Amino acid sequence: xxxxxxxxxxxxxxxxxxxxxxxxxxxxxxxxxxxxxxxxxxxxxxxxxxxxxxx
Length: 55
Ligand SMILES: [Zn+2]
Fold this sequence. Notes:
The protein is mainly beta. It has one helix at 25-28; strands at residues 13-16, 22-24, 51-54.
């Protein structure tokens, strides 16, 4: 089992406003600038717009 959480590069947790999936920040971005939901078929992008940062 090597999935999800173990590979996060960022410590913050994000939640998708569209599909409700929660994932670490590192899974949602490749360059640390552009964010998008990692779930297949979901097109939510952007912090605050498509994704919500959880504290
Ligand atoms: Zn999503």
